[in-house]
């Protein structure tokens, strides 16, 4: 036997699908949540009754993952990161968590805001992340910020952003290498130019010697046949 309740509709095949420990409901909404009680009564003359109850929670899951706003694409060491994560509407409100490079953010970095209740009885939650960028926040020149939204054990979604660092040591080191390479190239160019000068000088000397020898031969011929 079942007692009719508003906002609770039993499955049309209740008698065939239900057993001593289960009951099927259809078209469940938020009003269907609550404590359900089952009673078992013995026959006459004792009419002993045994009852058990269980709370049922009805979830409305978000239609999309959490959104991250307020972030920049690049940060320098010493800059302040101030980003916000907002969940989609759900019931109950999602629990938000921030991660920096897949490690949970320190408690002093996060600021929790009050939950927003909408006209359809659904809720949204918001969690901010604020910290000063240090060099160790960058892994290979990048920093990953991730926000997860969780509802009990039935739902978890995440959203993440990859930001890039500027003015890091490894980048400065790269510039120094470039500068050193330019000095090497400059020195190499000087060496080539010096070698070219020697080559020109040798050619000139060879040309002068040839001219001198040629002049000597011409004089000898003149003296012999003149």
TrEMBL record:
Q: Which InterPro entries match?
A: CD80_C2-set, Ig-like_dom, Ig-like_dom_sf, Ig-like_fold
Q: Boundaries of each Ig-like domain copy?
A: 66-163
For whether the record's keyword set contains Disulfide bond, the answer is: yes
| Keywords from the named record | Disulfide bond
Kindly give the SUPFAM superfamilies that the UniProt entry links to this protein. Answer: Immunoglobulin (SSF48726)
Q: Does the keyword Disulfide bond apply?
A: yes
**Which sequence ranges are marked TM in the entry?**
none
Name of the protein this chain belongs to: Ig-like domain-containing protein
